[in-house]
Amino acid sequence: GTTLGASAAEKGRYFGAAVATGKLSTSVYTTILNREFNSVVAENEMKWDATEPQQGRFSYTGGDRLVSHAQANGMSVRGHALLWHQQEPGWAQGMSGSALRSAMINHVTQVATHFRGKIYAWDVVNEAFADGGSGGRRDSNLQRTGNDWIEAAFRAARAADPGAKLCYNDYNTDGVNAKSTGIYNMVRDFKSRGVPIDCVGFQSHLGTSLASDYQANLQRFADLGVDVQITELDVMTGGNQANIYGAVTRACMNVSRCTGITVWGVRDCDSWRGSDNALLFDCNGNKKAAYTNVLNAL
Ligand code: XIL
Question: What is the similarity comment for this entry (predicted)?
Fold first, then answer.
């Protein structure tokens, strides 16, 4: 293929980008998006603060706009994210205990129901594990409602949209380490007890090197019986950027259950990482060396 999306599709996979719907009226941006990508995710517009700004008052304007754009252009949609300790609306930040538990499950149910049938895969829970050597959960008001909050969220999401793949998504999980092993143990436990989980997302916000066991780590999760996806790929600029992009793409292609790759934005100047210039297109919309390496690896 001559584009990322078409090349990935030839291998039964997708190649996606995170989108800010406010940029869809910028022609350089949308021209690249529509030409190169066959999957999208909302960079912010399906998060809790955006979709339920006041308790029980739901707002789907941005999310619906992105779904419409995707459907009109033959793109699949990843849903991001039903529950995350960041970008909680203010009203939820102030809650705890059984009131928060009810509110968060209601959020999962309402949002997954609204988008039912339109989402390829949901990040049901985002970033719930701690960094460092503990391998345990991150402290948050969500975690303090009880260790079973993650499985309760997955069960609610399955009931609301049985057709969506349900993913757990996190960062600093790029090799076999304490954090990724903690998540691995949770997924293994969920599979053994019949808690509905279909996929694990590896955000892959990368620096100037790539863990040598990146592919092996994807494979050990796939061997548990879940799909894996690269969900938020971006790579710090520098001598290795193009090489790392190529290596990540090859790793996914080498794992049969790695179903797709999403980059976290279109052009360098769209990236949350600012001066890292972490994406595949420069600010003028030109393809970078990293783009060529990705295309050649698909
Ligand atoms: C980031 C967005 O890119 C920013 O626009 C926003 O201000 C903060 O969130 N991990 C995630 C994403 O799961 O949702 C984050 O997105 C980047 C880190």
Answer: Belongs to the glycosyl hydrolase 10 (cellulase F) family.
pLDDT tens-digit readout, 38-95: 999 999 999 999 999 999 999 999 999 999 999 999 999 999 999 999 999 999 999 9
Nearest CA to ligand 1 atom 12: 43
The token duo for 161 is 């949209």
**Quick one: 137 exposed, middle or buried, by C-beta within 10 A (0-12, 13-18, 19+)?**
middle
Q: Coil, helix or strand for 15? A: strand
The atom number, within ligand 1, closest to the CA of 265 reads 3
| Separation between Cα atoms, residue 35 and residue 25, nearest integer Å | 15
Cα of first residue to Cα of last residue in the chain, in angstroms, is: 9
In Å, how far are 8, 37, 275 from 251, measured between CA atoms?
13, 19, 27
How far away, in angstroms, is 42 Cα from ligand 1 center?
A: 10
Predicted confidence (pLDDT) at residue 239 exceeds the cutoff of 90: no
- Give the ipTM of the model, two decimals please: 0.99
pLDDT 10s digits, 8-23: 999 999 999 999 999 9
Contacts of 274 (CB under 8 A, 6+ apart): none
Q: Would you say the CB of residue 126 lies under 6 angstroms from ligand 1?
A: yes
Is 232 marked active-site? Answer: yes
The CB of 20 under 6 Å from ligand 1? The reply is no
The token pair that represents 230 in the structure block: 């690269």
Active-site residue (options: 43, 45, 88, 232): 232
pLDDT at 258: 99
